[in-house]
Amino acid sequence: MNQEKALDLIIHKIKKDYAEDVAFLAIMGSYARGTHHEHSDLDLFFLPSTPRGESLGFTFILDGIGYDLWPISLSRLQNIASQKEPLASILAEAKIKYWHTEEDLERFLALKEKAKTSASKEVLLEKLPLLKSKLQESAFSLLLMKDLAEFRKIAMKQVKTIFYVLSLLHGTAPSGNYLKNKENLITMTGVPKDFYAHLDGLFEEDTLEELKTHVIDVTETAVHLIEDFLGSAEARRSPAKEVFNGFYEELVNHYHKIRHAAERNDPKECLLAAASLENEISETLAHVSGNLPVLPPLVGAFHPNDLRSMVDAAKIHEDAFLLYLKNEEVPLRVFETIEEFSAYLDNLS
């Protein structure tokens, strides 16, 4: 097959002209899993050692078959291996085809092995609350849909997110292959017996009514599994008084950015600042024990043609967040005058 010949040519080119620029090259996807056929695309990724090596990345079509030569930085590979992105399978299933030095080979094998292991508790506590919100928001949108084609498109994203959640909780790498995911997760504890029947139903049913029934069931299962884990992890969390110490002082600038962007009528910067602030708070709350605040929406209040509403929303949000910090007895270092700050410094020992 041309795929194998093309791979040989790519490896030959690296050895001949890019030996110092590419640390290793690996195949991923169906070729790595051994599930490929004569029309399968060939997907490869490599770790560049230099900017010149990074420039080697490109996509192309040969005899009707797609090829992807994808450069991935070491920092991103490390994030993927740590399951901070739903791409761990590209490493866990990957097969190395070229390496420059034995050290490069060892680096690849270490990344591959790490991708096969469970995500750390820190990653789970950071990711799962965000994924829970994502699942619930998507499910709500799906229930309101009236277009079958649009429903199917968004439902497939929901399935992908659900597999990511289950894989994180099960301690396995999510696969890009549906049947492989089912095989990996079929024995997972806590999953109802009819879960996979509902999951399959999202591919097999033809009416919106039936499809919505299935999406509710599989989403509720994933959300309940997340809640069960977060509940059991409660003892490993810390009080808000500890987690949020120094947080507001560092993040207050986001509120200023929202107001400043609104004054300059800059919707892009306004939305970026609002989203960044909400994400920072949400991710930090994942590490907090006890009662969690119900904060008014920021991004939800965004209207590109009415940024005045964002100024008001930022004020309401900041007041609510400060009230939560006060109720949780989080210490705040806020000074109204330079004299107050000077006195604070004088009292530092």
TrEMBL record:
Q: Does the keyword Transferase apply?
A: yes
Q: Which domain of life is it from?
A: Bacteria
One Pfam family here = NTP_transf_2
Q: For the Polymerase nucleotidyl transferase domain, which residue ranges apply?
A: 13-122
Q: Which Gene3D superfamilies match?
A: Beta Polymerase, domain 2 (3.30.460.10)
| SUPFAM superfamilies (alphabetical) | Nucleotidyltransferase (SSF81301)
A Gene Ontology molecular function term of the record? nucleotidyltransferase activity
Alphabetized UniProt keyword annotations: Transferase
Name of this protein: Nucleotidyltransferase domain-containing protein
**Native organism:** Proteiniclasticum ruminis
